[in-house]
């Protein structure tokens, strides 16, 4: 079984994907974390990530592995705990615009999708990585709700700052030239603005159990 989940930042894709993986015995592949790993590498080594030539120069030094318990290894080092900061989020949404970065990561994602039963979340999963997925979900929510959720997740106090960061990432994710965030026509659309996680989980589990 293959399940694709797409949607904008802060909509709750990863929490849902983890729950699906547990319930239905699938591997969870967090593709956003892969972009974050590349971002972490560039940030840690103080390298310029805004320039495609420079990205290309260093990309082949980056080796990404996922363990079966959802840990992320960058060149053999477990970096799972360093990926979910606002700085890494911003860098990852910038470098995700570049072809060389996308080519490297999408090849890896397609390879995993071909060989495993997975639930994969990201921006281009149904449109590009798993167009033949058994279930395609597109989650959305109003930006102010997503900002509030991000604020709670990261323990931040400044709503305005979180809100602006979400809007900036939406702008980059929706408007980039290569594989922007899109809702494919056969995706099951769920607006989670007025739903709590339990309601979303219930709805999605019911759809999977009853075959859509
Ligand atoms: O889902 P996330 O917030 O962890 O993703 C981080 C960034 O990576 C996001 O701003 C856009 C990019 N991304 C992407 O371009 N394509 C994906 N499939 C997943 C993430």
Model description:
With 212 residues, the protein is of the alpha/beta class. The chain is built from 9 helices and 8 strands. It has a single domain (2-210), classed as P-loop containing nucleotide triphosphate hydrolases (Rossmann fold, 3-Layer(aba) Sandwich). It has helices at 13-24, 31-44, 52-59, 86-95, 99-115, 125-129, 143-154, 159-175, 197-209; strands at residues 2-6, 27-30, 64-66, 72-74, 77-78, 118-122, 135-140, 188-191. A hairpin with a 2-residue loop joins strand 4 and strand 5 (77-78). The chain is globular. The two termini are 13 Å apart. The chain binds 2'-deoxycytidine-5'-monophosphate (DC). Residues 9, 31-33, 35-36, 89, 92-93, 96, 122-124, 169, 173 line the site of 2'-deoxycytidine-5'-monophosphate.
List the SSEs and their pairings.
Elements: E1 2-6, H1 13-24, E2 27-30, H2 31-44, H3 52-59, E3 64-66, E4 72-74, E5 77-78, H4 86-95, H5 99-115, E6 118-122, H6 125-129, E7 135-140, H7 143-154, H8 159-175, E8 188-191, H9 197-209
Parallel strand pairs: 1-6, 1-7, 2-6, 7-8
Antiparallel strand pairs: 3-4, 4-5
Helix pairs in contact: 1-9, 2-4, 3-5, 4-8, 7-8
The structure holds 2'-deoxycytidine-5'-monophosphate (DC).
């Amino acid at each position: 079984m293959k399940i694709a989940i797409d949607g904008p930042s802060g909509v709750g894709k990863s929490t849902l994907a983890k729950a699906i993986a547990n319930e239905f015995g699938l591997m969870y592949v967090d593709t956003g974390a892969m972009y974050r790993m590349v971002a972490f590498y560039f940030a840690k080594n103080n390298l310029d990530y805004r320039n495609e030539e420079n990205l290309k120069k260093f990309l082949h030094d980056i080796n990404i592995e996922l363990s079966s318990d959802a840990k992320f290894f960058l060149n053999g080092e477990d970096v799972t705990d360093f990926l979910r900061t606002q700085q890494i989020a911003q860098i990852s949404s910038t470098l995700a615009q570049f072809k060389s970065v996308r080519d490297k990561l999408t090849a890896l994602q397609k390879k995993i999708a071909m060989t495993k039963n997975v639930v994969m979340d990201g921006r281009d999963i149904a449109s590009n990585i798993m167009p033949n997925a058994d279930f395609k979900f597109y989650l959305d929510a109003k930006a102010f709700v997503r900002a509030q959720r991000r604020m709670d997740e990261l323990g931040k106090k400044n709503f305005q700052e979180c809100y602006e960061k979400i809007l900036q990432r939406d702008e980059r994710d929706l408007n980039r030239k290569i594989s922007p965030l899109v809702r494919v026509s056969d995706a099951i659309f769920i607006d989670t603005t007025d739903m709590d996680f339990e309601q979303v989980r219930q709805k999605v589990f019911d759809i999977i159990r009853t075959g859509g």
